Amino acid sequence: MSEIVERAALPLAQTATSRRPIGLLLVAMPVLLVIWLVIWPAINAISRTVWRTDVNGNAGFDLSSYAFFFSDTYSLGNLAVTLWTTLVCAVLLLVISLPIALYLRFSRGRLPAYVQALAILPMFVPSIILAFAFIRVLGPNGMLDILLNALGLPKIRTPYLTPWGPVIGLVWDNTPLTVLILLSGLGGVANQAIEAARDVGANAIRVFWHIILPRISNSILVALSFSVLGIFSSFTLPYLLGPASPEMLGPFMQRTLRDVQDPIGAMTQAVVAFGFCILFGLFYVRSVARNRGNR
Amino acid sequence: MSVLNIAEVTKTFSGGTNAVDRFSLDVAGGELVCLLGPSGSGKSTLLRMVGGFEQPTGGRITIDGEDVTHLPPERRPTGMVFQSHALWTHMNVFKNVAFGLRLRRMPAKQIREKVEAVLELVGLAGYGDRMTTQLSGGQQQRVALARSLVLEPKILLLDEPFASLDQHLRERLRDEVRDIQQRLGITTLFVTHGQDEALSMADRIVVIANGRAEQIGRPDAVYRDPKTPFVAGFIGLMNLIEGEVKNGHFIRSEFTTPLPIADGPATLAIRPEALDLTASNAPTARVHRVTDYGSHGLVDLDLADGTRLKSTVANLDLFQAGQGVGLLPRAVAAYRENQQIYRS
């Protein structure tokens, strides 16, 4: 009996062994790319910012670039505006995208299909086009000002080149992905689970708070993590729509490297940004693990 | 005294489909009424309208004299048990059952007492801390039942609650649910497409087809005296034979039997247990197959024109495939224009 089993199992084992290199090869390409484009530059940047050569040519451990970053008011101001923009965008994205996703999930008919198409439209508009459209509409003497002027109303205080400029652009840019992730999470909430809650006396707000929200908490975390990571390290929209000072870390890095020609300073800013992104990532992993543990 | 009154209720979906068509029913206090019908007959839509999950297009629903036709589910004195259990998987058993009580801002001590009592009632004492995903299908359905019962609804609505369970568990649970329902004396509306469930549990059965009540009555009455060919064919096994009546005899192929009704087309209904087989020199049917069900045997018979009939027999050894037999109906019903016109 055992001989038969062994014989039968042999070809399967051989097949599995022969398939292994193909599987490893398939995985190898993205792993190599991540190592080449992310891990190696990160290690390189960290090592170059902490292991430096002084004017006498002596190499040694040196945290002076970090000490400068965390003591320089201008750098700290840029970090603060980056964190502020990220936080405000995250809150606005949730406030805007969640109602849209809820509407799309629980509405029937043709109208939700049009709303979904509109909600996803920004995904197909490149950031640079969006930035110039923003300037033409909300910028000084833009379309809105012209319209207000035609109506005899005063001009608006334009958000262009203020911290709100990148916020508006980034929220617009990140809305489609956030809506889609939340919609996918809401797809997992069964209609009967909601009906059962209504049956025991829950009104719409309580159904949302007690039944829907706990069931989509992971999707909210995923959506916020994706958008927070993207917003924190964004460049184009803050560069084109944001103020010159304080500025977000993306444009700050670019200016430090190109205009100030301080590669170590730019790398230090990159390592600090990377550190914050890792913190966001760890928070996400911990929250997801805790949610799964609770189930 | 009627607790639930459904008067001329209609539900028309977009596209003009009448899911429920001028349906009326009175349910007395403590009664268990089964809505029985095939898929798409409108029974679940009707139940959902009583629960407030669908709005009727026409008609009126009252509970204890109060018009609830346009009230949302959260404001109706009903409790629904869903086919898919619909438990909240992020809450444990206790929280699932206690949720409705918490919404009513009941003191914590009272909530605990009520939840523990109802969990004991459904046989889940000590399961409060378990997550619902750790329970079997039967236990999950008990939690769903407890969640409804703990709120002491005036009407319990059961939407095919055992459909996702295996046969053995289904039989056990339906006995338990019936025991609980009788002990609490709670008025219950139960949707099922399983006639065994309906026949074994219900005080009354409503057979529904195409959104209308075909027949309403006690289970034995519906089984023994189906008023329409649909009910006759839907409840239990039934031989429904289309034929002609001439000179007081029903005729189909070689098979004839006395039928004292006016000449014309008719549908004859004979239960397999009311169709005796006899030895005959001029056989009217041939045995197609003999099936042993342990407690009884079932003989499939073919008339000369291929019409298939069934007869229940006590002794299978007397019959074999290909054998010619005579047919002797002991009790028949006859239908014309969808109405019963004769019953022996």
Q: How would you characterize the overall build of this protein?
A:
The complex is a heterodimer of chains A (295) and B (344). Chain A is mainly alpha-helical and 295 residues long. Chain A folds into 2 domains: 4-61, no CATH class; 65-294, MetI-like (MetI-like fold, Orthogonal Bundle). In chain A, 77% of the residues lie in helices and 2% in strands. Chain A has helices spanning 2-50, 64-69, 73-106, 111-120, 127-138, 143-150, 164-187, 191-199, 204-215, 217-232, 236-241, 249-258, 263-294; strands at residues 51-53, 59-61. Chain A has a two-stranded antiparallel ribbon with strand order 1-2. In chain A, strand 1 (51-53) and strand 2 (59-61) form a beta hairpin. Residues 1-6 of chain A have low confidence and may be disordered. By secondary structure, chain B is α+β, with helices and mostly antiparallel strands. Chain B folds into 2 domains: 2-232, Rossmann fold, CATH 3.40.50.300; 238-343, OB fold (Dihydrolipoamide Acetyltransferase, E2P), CATH 2.40.50.140. Chain B has 8 helices and 21 strands. Chain B is elongated, with a radius of gyration of 24 Å. The mean pLDDT of chain B is 92. Chains A and B meet through helix 8 and helix 9 of A and strand 6, helix 2 and helix 4 of B.
Task: List key phrases describing it.
heterodimer; A: 295 residues; mainly alpha; MetI-like fold; 13 helices; 2 strands; 77% helix; 2% strand; B: alpha+beta; Rossmann fold; OB fold (Dihydrolipoamide Acetyltransferase, E2P)
**Whole-angstrom Rg of chain A:** 25 Å
| Sheet having the most strands of chain A | 2 strands, antiparallel
Question: What percentage of residues of chain A falls in helices of 4 or more residues?
Answer: over 70%
Q: Supply Rg of chain B.
A: 24 Å
Name the strands of the widest sheet of chain B in spatial order: 6-7-8-3-9-10
The third-level CATH topology of the largest domain in chain A is MetI-like fold
Domains of chain B (count): 2
**How many structural units, i.e. domains of chain A?**
2
Principal-axis shape of chain A equals: globular
Number of helices of chain B: 8
User: Biggest protein-protein interface?
Assistant: A-B, 19 and 27 residues
CATH class of the largest domain in chain A: Mainly Alpha
Mean model confidence by pLDDT of chain B:
92
> Can you tell me the CATH topology of the largest domain in chain B?
Rossmann fold
* Average pLDDT number of chain A: 89
How many beta-strand elements of chain A?
2
CATH class of the largest domain in chain B: Alpha Beta
**Superfamily (CATH H level) name of the largest domain in chain B:** P-loop containing nucleotide triphosphate hydrolases
The oligomerization state is heterodimer
* Helix/strand class of chain A: mainly alpha
